[in-house]
Automatic annotation (TrEMBL):
Subcellular location: Cytoplasm, Cytoplasmic ribonucleoprotein granule
Pfam families hit by this protein: AAA_11 (PF13086), AAA_12 (PF13087), MOV-10_beta-barrel (PF21634), zf-met (PF12874)
Organism of provenance: Mycena rosella (Pink bonnet)
The entry's keywords: ATP-binding, Cytoplasm, Helicase, Hydrolase, Nucleotide-binding, RNA-binding, RNA-mediated gene silencing
Enzyme class, broadest EC rank: hydrolase
Family statement drawn from the similarity comment of this UniProt entry: Belongs to the DNA2/NAM7 helicase family. SDE3 subfamily.
Coiled-coil regions listed in the entry: none
SUPFAM superfamilies in the cross-refs: P-loop containing nucleoside triphosphate hydrolases
GO MF annotation terms: 5'-3' RNA helicase activity; ATP binding; hydrolase activity; RNA binding; zinc ion binding
PANTHER family, per the entry: CANCER/TESTIS ANTIGEN 55, CANCER_TESTIS ANTIGEN 55
Protein name per the record: RNA helicase
Top-level lineage group: Eukaryota
Length: 1001
């Protein structure tokens, strides 16, 4: 290779026409490396090694010489150089965008704080040294210095031995294990006395310690070249990790000075085999997020025939993200972006006139984030296998929709070493468990089976475009979008007594709230405000909706119903319960991307397929004759798309409405409703809402579902609106009363009634694993450790995994209380934890479902085991959000604990969970009723819970007191502290790894 052009490397420009040097190169002067192309440099610039050098070379405030702009922090720098604005400025100037950040000697209006390594605006400088963040940073530096000093051997005294007990099995830890470290004096003629040995908590106060050291003789002399052996004993009855600090105080008798040598004691009581199997295969290194270079040329692929299976006559809008909005979303913190979007793009007031503009922008914001998140799944060294007309591509995680790939999607591939920016598009023709079948343009060639490719997953925009189409429609009735009291007719609402319905489901007749909901729906005049069936867990909201559909059809022979749900599974449940209508009245629509194997046999006669096997729709005339059409919220666009006129459906029902975004719900409503259409929603705004990937979109309200927004309005008060606009179902047919009691009080005002069959709910009372025979909840206190590995930011906790496995083995082995795999569900908030739990269960109970909270919403099991995962002891280093993560979410908590019918087991670290007031209240509830096992609480479980929180602050303060005392004993520094480094606004990059992809077709 010829040398790189010196001019090009110094200023990016070479004006000599006769220059013989290479010009297609980039260099990194920091790392002293030259790269063959800007793309290779971009990849290098995101590596940890390069970023570390940049951080060491430059401060927290960075400067872009191209854009002449200051950027705060490396994370924002990476986003900045990937932005379209940066690329366009580089193109305008004829320069490459791959520039290194610079830190000028001075930033106008700023002063560098060396302690915080931050440029502080001059207006804030006089107060900066008094801020908590600066003081915390000073304290932390002081403490780390004192601790480092304490762990050194000094004054000729050395303390030897292995103070890490390692992994110890439960019986051995319970009987006790002793180690014998030694103290040695290597200084001639010195006179040193051992004054004391004490144990001190390293992370705040504790009620007890499994470690113990025997008392020593007062001022025990340790002469020159002598060795003194002492013992440290471990005795612990429970599994889990423990850590403490041993402080050995010495006195130099001649100098009359004292000094400390400290050692950290550690133990992990647990299953060694599980730890060996599940331990991280590689240390966690944050994933290198390299900005995708734009595709300069894409050769269109061959798309599957399923994309033409539906005879659409209404074109979809392209609705691309506006360039200026995309640029605004590219840089800055979540807080600053939210402020800019509110100020520049969103209407000041959300009403019927501004509704479409508001939600279209939220859709674009979410699309921007979804597209970026797909980059996580890009494959850099993929193999393609030729098979007939197709090329097979292995996609790790495909079976779990990580990434989500459907028939009709597009995947880009680029041969390694090919022209930069040149890509081939592959149309996805079929999707198997771990592979997809692609078809490319005829010009695509593989020269050898050894060829390797870069792969990019492209976001399917069809669902988003259908939502934009709905937003663009003229329907904007206030009685549907923003209902007011004036939209509700005066007078009393119809009651079951006055209606005298003959119910199809006899159970409805004995359930007053369900019957009232059905009557209110059937007797509503056309053009009423939307009606809400508020259905807490296990109260039968889908049963109620199905009964209402059948009653509407029976009461009005001209009624036509469009029934929707956010997912195919929820839509299938509606269709299953309506099959009595027969295939002439009921039609279940599936997107052509769905395969027949994914559809239950009993529903296939209610569908329509083309001769090639793809799902479709029958002729328009027949479609109009169906009395009920069932589809997912997104697929509901089919009816307007094929030409069914607005107003054809007298009623639009949406089940599980809380799990869909408002634009998804509006696909059916805004495209098909007229002034007489009645809308019915069922759901529970106290459970999980829709899956939103963008922190900006969540902050701006996209995570608030339509049903939740309605229930915040005056007319949907559960008391005053009862029967007229809303009915709250109150009879729970799922859970044992003790399992229901806590969420009932916390989320549902104590109004739920436990009505489930005792044969189911009492089935495991008296089981050996229950601490109290009559109380079917177990909280297993376990101090583990959350960990990450390789490039995945998702957490896992081996200690909890081992305990979950032990519980499942005990349940499966019990011959008196028989439990099958299908009876058990395991819920964990992190994807990595789910994967590892499945791994250890393959040889134990392979049929147990393991999944996230989102995957269990709407489901139930006789036994639910929850692994909370988070067990960080870095209370002093992080805020509550960082320490608890997903666990500190009331809706996730509510869904998780309400899935169990007969037995609920929660495995977690109480010291971490109790930082959150909701979790602390739950732990107090379980402890008071005798469901606690493991080490006792470190707080008073009888004390009233402070709902305002602050427990994390109290723990940090206790840790600070410990550190202060320690540094005073070290006589080195006078203060100690903690670096309060919260997760920050941009932590969303990590959390989306564990946020599932919504199943939309």
């Amino acid at each position: 290779m010829s040398q790189a052009c010196p001019s090009l490397l110094s200023n990016g420009i070479c004006e000599s026409p006769s220059c013989s040097y290479r010009h297609d190169v980039s260099s990194c002067e920091l790392c002293n490396r030259v790269f063959a192309s800007p793309a290779e440099y971009t990849t290098h610039a995101a590596t940890k090694q390069h970023l570390n050098k940049v951080q060491g070379e430059f401060g927290a405030m960075l400067y872009c010489t191209l854009c002449e702009k200051y950027v705060s922090g490396m994370k924002n720098w990476v986003q900045h150089v990937a932005s379209g604005r940066h690329a366009s400025i580089a193109a305008e100037r004829g320069l490459r965008p791959d520039v290194d950040p610079e830190e000028p000697e001075s930033i106008p209006g700023h002063t560098l704080c060396s302690t915080c390594n931050s440029h502080i605006p001059d207006r804030n400088w006089p107060r900066h040294h008094l801020t908590p963040k600066h003081k915390d940073r000073e304290q932390f530096i002081s403490f780390r210095s004192a601790l480092d000093e304490a762990e050194k051997d000094k004054h000729g005294i050395s303390v030897s031995g292995n103070f890490d007990f390692g992994i110890v099995d439960g019986p051995a830890a319970k009987s006790g294990i002793t180690i014998r470290p030694t103290i040695h004096n290597a200084t001639p003629a010195s006179k040193v006395a051992l004054v004391s040995m004490t144990l001190a908590s390293d992370k705040g106060s504790r009620t007890q310690s499994p470690f113990s050291v025997p008392p020593t003789a007062p001022n025990l002399a340790i002469g020159y070249n002598s060795t003194y052996a002492f013992t440290v004993t471990l005795r612990q009855a429970y599994n889990g990790r423990e850590e403490n600090r041993l402080e050995i105080l010495f006195e130099d008798v001649q100098l009359k000075t004292r000094f400390i040598i400290a050692r950290i004691l550690r133990v992990n009581v647990g299953n060694r085999a599980d730890h060996e199997l599940l331990r991280p295969l590689a240390p966690y290194v944050p994933r290198k997020r390299t900005a995708r270079q734009p595709e300069a040329k894409i050769v269109e692929g061959v798309l599957p025939p399923s994309l033409k299976a539906i005879p659409y006559i209404v074109p979809l809008p392209e609705a691309p993200i506006p360039h200026n909005l995309a640029a605004a979303l590219s840089t800055g913190s979540t807080t600053s972006i939210v402020a800019d979007v509110r100020r520049l793009y969103l209407p000041p007031v959300l009403d019927s006139k501004s509704y479409a503009r508001h939600f279209k922008h939220l859709l674009w914001i979410e699309e921007f984030r979804m597209d970026r998140d797909l980059e996580h799944y890009d494959i850099s060294n993929a193999k393609l296998t030729a098979h007939n007309h197709f090329y097979l591509l292995d996609v790790p995680g495909l079976a779990e929709k990580r990434p989500s790939v459907l028939v009709g999607d597009r995947i880009l591939v680029q041969k390694r070493g090919a022209t930069l920016g040149h890509w081939f598009e592959g149309g996805v023709h079929f999707v198997r468990k771990e592979e997809v079948g692609l078809r490319f343009n005829a010009s695509f060639r593989m020269t050898s089976p050894a060829d390797r490719f870069n792969v990019r997953f492209k976001l399917s925009r069809y669902p988003l475009r259908r939502q934009h189409l709905a937003m663009d429609t003229a329907f904007s009735e206030a009685r549907v979008l923003f209902p007011l009291p004036l939209h509700v007719p005066a007078g009393s609402y119809p009651t079951p007594a006055s209606a005298r319905l003959t119910v199809f489901n006899p159970l409805i007749a004995t359930n007053a709230p369900q019957l009232q909901a059905v009557v209110s729906i059937v007797k509503r005049p056309p053009g009423s405000v939307p009606f809400v069936i508020f259905g807490p867990p296990g109260t039968g909201k889908t049963v109620t909706m199905v009964e209402a559909i059948r009653q509407v059809l029976a009461a009005d022979p001209h009624a036509r119903i469009l029934a929707c749900a956010p997912s195919n599974s929820a839509a299938d449940l509606i269709a299953h319960r309506l099959t009595a209508l027969g295939p002439d009245a009921l039609f279940r629509f599936y997107a052509p991307s769905r395969s027949k194997e994914q559809v239950a046999l009993e529903l296939r006669e209610y569908t329509h397929a083309r001769p090639d096997g793809h799902f479709s729709v029958p002729p328009l005339a027949r479609m109009k004759r169906f009395r009920v059409v069932v589809a997912t919220c997104v697929s509901a666009s089919v009816v307007s798309g094929i030409g069914i006129p607005r107003g054809h459906y007298s009623h639009i029902f949406c089940d599980e409405a809380g799990q869909a975004t408002e634009p998804e719900i509006m696909i059916a409503i805004k495209t098909m409703a007229d002034s007489r259409t009645n809308v019915m929603l069922s759901g529970d705004p106290k459970q999980l809402g829709p899956i939103i990937r963008s922190a900006v979109a969540r902050e701006l309200g996209l995570e608030t579902s339509y049903i939740e927004r309605l229930m915040q309005r005056e007319i949907y008060d559960e008391k005053t609106g009862y029967g007229a606009s809303v009915v709250k179902l109150t009879k729970n047919f799922r859970s044992h009363a003790a399992i229901l009691a806590f969420p009932n009080t916390r989320f549902y005002k104590g109004e739920l009634q436990a009505c489930a069959t005792a044969r189911v709910t009492d089935a495991l009372l008296g089981a050996p694993l229950l601490p109290t025979a009559a109380f079917p909840i177990v909280f297993h206190a376990l101090a583990g450790r959350d960990a990450r590995e390789a490039a995945s930011p998702s957490f896992f906790n081996i200690d909890e995994i081992s305990q979950v496995k032990a519980y499942i083995q005990a349940l499966r082995a019990d011959r008196r209380f028989r439990v099958t795999d299908d009876d058990i569900g395991v819920i964990a908030p992190y994807h990595a934890q789910c994967l590892k739990i499945r791994a250890v269960l393959r040889a134990v109970a392979d049929g147990v479902k393991v999944g996230s909270v989102e995957e269990f919403q709407g489901q139930e099991r006789r036994v639910i085991i929850i692994s909370t995962v988070r067990s960080s002891r870095e209370f002093v280093a992080y805020d509550l959000r960082h320490t608890l993560g997903f666990v500190a979410n009331p809706r996730r908590f509510n869904v998780a604990v309400t899935r169990a019918q007969a037995l609920l087991i929660v495995v977690g670290d109480p010291a971490v969970l109790a930082l959150d007031p909701l979790w602390r209240a739950f732990l107090n509830y379980v402890h008071a009723r005798g469901g606690w096992t493991g080490p006792p609480p470190t707080w008073d479980p009888r004390a009233a819970v402070e709902e305002a929180g602050g427990y994390d602050r109290a723990v940090r303060e206790a840790a600070q007191r410990d550190m202060n005392a320690f540094t005073r004993r070290m006589e080195a520094l006078t203060i100690a502290g903690v670096e309060a480094a919260g997760a920050g606004e941009d932590g969303d990059d990590d959390t989306n790894v564990d946020r599932p992809w919504q199943d939309v077709e």
